[in-house]
Specification:
CATH class of the domain at 143-224: Alpha Beta
CATH architecture of the domain at 143-224: Roll
CATH superfamily of the domain at 143-224: Outer membrane lipoprotein wza domain like
Largest sheet: 5 strands, mixed
Helix content: 25-40%
Order of helices and strands: HEHEEEHEEEEHEEEEH
Length: about 270
């Protein structure tokens, strides 16, 4: 009776240990209690870069006064190119390798290095002598991030606002799967000098909010690794498929040989 009780206690301990381990592997921001205050990483405004596509619209109380600043699309697309604009009736502006765009009446404007708001204010100031109370809106059409790996819906997503947090990006990808490693999220980011910077983020720790990768930037790629169970299961399935294929090949070969032998004996 004592042995049975000991055995049952061991089983119960194993179940509790497995449950705790599962929680630690799955839960986000563990240890963060209600009322806790944690530092948040610095918010960095998205800047315009070379090769970015911009949609710039100008409006005013007198639509005719701003018509020249909202030119319609010209059919200048090359084979294989697609229109990026959310408003296909308006012209996009491509930032050239030197960082400039050609804007009607104003000519070449240095856009690279400016934020969306800064470019809006600059164009508005330049138009004020010609247009009464102009309203300028700039949209960065290439303001995207990509989420890959163990998420429900991987893909490339547009950053809807000036900034997008890592959790918001995972929300766009319909959250992590149960097989995702939450403690080793990889983020790659292209630097201004053309190099690739990588960061690792642990979603299970409260310090995720102060990580330089918490707020994503334009062009970031988020990769979620599979956990050990997914890796081992994938390896098992691959080996299983290989074994089944090998057995099928052997059986087919034996059948052919047997058919030839039978045919020889019949003759």
């Amino acid at each position: 009776m004592k042995k049975k009780a000991t055995f049952a206690l061991l089983i119960l301990s194993a179940i509790i240990f497995h449950s705790c381990k599962s929680y630690k592997d799955i839960a986000y921001v563990q240890g963060l209690e209600s009322g806790d205050i944690v530092p948040l990483t610095e918010k960095i405004a998205t800047t315009i870069n070379t090769n970015d596509a911009l949609l710039i619209t100008v409006s005013a109380t007198n639509p005719e006064a701003v018509a020249a600043y909202n030119p319609p699309v010209t059919n200048s697309l090359k084979p294989g190119e697609t229109m990026l604009s959310s408003n296909p009736s308006l012209q996009n502006y491509l930032v050239d390798p030197d960082g400039y765009i050609d804007f009607p009446s104003l000519g070449r404007i240095k856009a690279a290095g400016l934020t969306r708001s800064q470019l809006e204010q600059y164009i508005k100031k330049e138009l004020e002598p010609m247009v009464t109370d102009p309203i300028v809106k700039v949209q960065i059409l290439t303001n995207n991030i990509t989420v890959l790996g163990e998420v429900t819906a991987p893909g490339t997503f547009e950053i809807p606002n000036e900034r997008l947090s890592l959790f918001e990006a995972l929300g766009l990808a319909k959250d992590l799967t149960i097989y995702a490693r939450r403690d080793n999220i990889l983020i790659t980011r292209e630097t201004e000098d053309g190099k690739l910077m990588s960061m690792r983020v642990d979603l299970t720790k409260p310090d995720v909010f102060s990580s330089p990768g918490f707020y994503l930037q334009k062009g970031d790629v988020v990769y979620v690794e599979p956990n050990d169970y997914r890796k081992s299961n994938s390896s098992y399935n691959s080996n299983k498929q290989f074994n089944v294929s090998m057995i099928s090949t052997i059986i087919s070969g034996v059948s052919v040989i047997a058919s030839l032998i039978i045919a020889l004996f019949v003759k």
